[in-house]
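Hi support team,

I submitted a single chain yesterday and got back a structure, but I'm not sure I'm reading the token output correctly. Could someone confirm the output below corresponds to the sequence I sent? I've pasted both exactly as they appear in my results page.

Thanks,
R.
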Amino acid sequence: MEQNTRARSKWPAIVLGLLLAAAGLALAIGGGKLLSLGGSAYYLIAGVAVIVAGILLALRKGAALWLYAAILFATLVWALWEVGLDWWQLVPRVAIPCLIAIIMLLPWWRKPLRSRGGSLALAASIAAAILVAIASQFDDPAHIEGTLADNRASTEANPAQVAGDDWPAYGGTNAGTHYSSLDQITPENVGELEEVWRIQTGDEPGPNAPPEITNQNTPLKVNDSLYICTSHSRAMALSPETGETLWEFDPEISTQGAEDFSGWAHMTCRGLAYYDAANYAGGAADSEDDSTDTAAAPSPLFADSDAFAIDVSLLNGFDTTATDEGENAPSAIISQTDVMCPRRLYLPTADARLIALNADTGEPCAGFGDNGEVDLTRNIGSFDPGGYYSTSPATVTENLVILGGHVTDNSSTDEPSGVIRAFDVRTGELVWNWDSGNPEETEPLADDETYTRNSPNVWAPISVDEDLGLVYLPMGNATPDQYGANRTENDETYSAGLVALELETGQVAWVYQFVHHDLWDMDMPAQPVLIDLATDEGTQPAVIQPTKQGSLYVLNRETGEPIVPIEEIPAPQGAVEGDWTAETQPRSALNLLPPPLTERDMWGATPFDQMMCRIQFNSLRYEGQYTPPSLEGSIVYPGNVGVMNWGGVAVDPERQALFTGAKYLAFVSRLIPRDDVEEGQGSASEQGLQPNAGAPYAVELGPLLSIFDLPCQAPSWGDVAGIDLQSADVVWKHRNGTTRDSMPLGLPIGLPVGVPALGGPLTTAGGVTFMSGTLDQYLRAYDITTGEELYKARLPAGGQATPMTYTGADGRQYVVISAGGHGTFGTKMGDYVIGYALPE
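Hi R., thanks for writing in. Yes, this is the structure output for that exact sequence:
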């Protein structure tokens, strides 16, 4: 009996010892590979030591406890030397070794070894690890603590930069600040916010929908209605107080000859644009709040071909009390199309049309273009289905509706032009076009002419300063993104920068480039923000351009000169044969750039996948930001999803403060010689193999991931930050979001690591900022002065959109968000629009 008991008691130690030895062998083999690449020797040394400890344990030798105690303590010292008291960096290095040590102290494994001293040594190592874990809770290298200064007493906001009771444009106004003067919701009461209505649009992904489908829509609130558009370009008018559908318009988009929509790199509608003739004819219609006007002052409409003199009172909502001469005279010239359709919405469709709708009824405005629509494929030339259309809303001014378009990245070197076009806001007639491939000729083309193929485009929203008469274009690139040997002089001049055009003529006023010879897809992704900025030299008209590379460029919007210093920094050299790289790249003194990656930054859930990430890191080319694409593969960090993307930033012009989310994901860019690419291989999606037809190289793109599909670089992967614009300082920065909806196997574990977000912020005079774009499905509210998370509401799908706010007819302040998910981002899909308000 005693012999059988001894036989049974030895097996736990043997089994655990053999498992330890196998784990040590894996560490030793991987560690040898890592060392051969110039990496850390720790994994090889630790692997050999674990093999020995496993063998000793299997032989039931007390020395196993002593040796493993030394391994754990040495691992702890090594981890502290590499990453300090960074909890999320310590976890993959120490957690599993510590767990194994605890198992070894359990009676089934400890007793057969008969080593009291070894047990005490192992317990001491465990205790040291626990103490370090406790200490690491008080230190977060990603955290910046601070409080934004309150500049409201010394600054006065420009009304053109502030939305009020209404939200009449995508960015609140044409200044793109995403700022509202509403202050009913405050840090003190935002915790009481509750969902008051929810609708489903019925526009959900079908079986043939592209994986990149997403509902990125920011609604408009104006004309006593809430206006939305859906992924498949449907427009809807809702009751602002209840979400009840008032009308719906379906443009019945075409697949453009494809069997389905699978060729579309994106399928989205970020927003509509709104025009009200009354805003330019002697009074603001249907609004008691002058701050909602998108123009600085009313002015007369110019006469067009179907214009005639008419008493202003014929237009519903016009101010009929004006008796002065000139611009507010009641006999102002009003076009017939304004009479028939005085309030209108402009809907960009996924099959490349621009449709004008009567905002009251949802019917097409017959006098605009061809029975209410303009064909945006005119003069564009050939393209594959889904290869050209506008994903962002148009920008509307007194006389013009202006928009650019999405062009598929990395499909070929013969893609449609990135032309920007300005149409008559009433008739749809083309007034001017600006093609960066032919920048001086802005007169409309003849029917048989084609805009310059492959010229840089503008896919993000456009901003306008009507007082200065300037349009601000956040410029994209000529395709392909990662190979630029064949780009023209105009491509090199206008791509990846900010271009200001004269509103009346479309001629270039100034240009400032933010990435020279861009080989990293660092095009300008977000709407430029216009703010009157208080500086030591007095108040300056500023424009702020958020970027993927992490810099926030602040220029004088009248002259294009930097307000915040921009330095040309040396950039890595050595592009692939046939191409070249710029010697320097511009970097703003105001930025949210992360430190360059090192091997120590490689991360994982366990020591094993962390080691594999280190091997991957040392196998790729990386010399810091702007490492050129290469045949072996280059790390792009920050990756082309950006530190900032289309969601942009929110700016409080009174506080002179900026709120933004920041993403930190490394990507890998690998060039594939043309001879190694089979015909038809690759797709138009943003990840995987991109064909680049016509170029000597295709490109393989994707995030730098571990064997468990986790980011290889350590968190934080997503932050929120508050910036004082007067001092150009990042005052506070916090991790944002959890793993609640992105854990393996769907485990509902919300680790607060800080996760990426796609979607922008909204900020208010009440001191509360809202954002919802994180990987986890929440709408969050923050105190703009400190960044403290004040509130979060669970969403039924991914909230990859930008919220907005308004006052309802009942006097309540509402916050509305679209929750439709995002295919590429991998969040849950849906078709929801949800309204929140304080209790009545």
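A quick pointer for reading it: The radius of gyration is 30 Å. Let us know if anything else looks off.

Best,
Support desk
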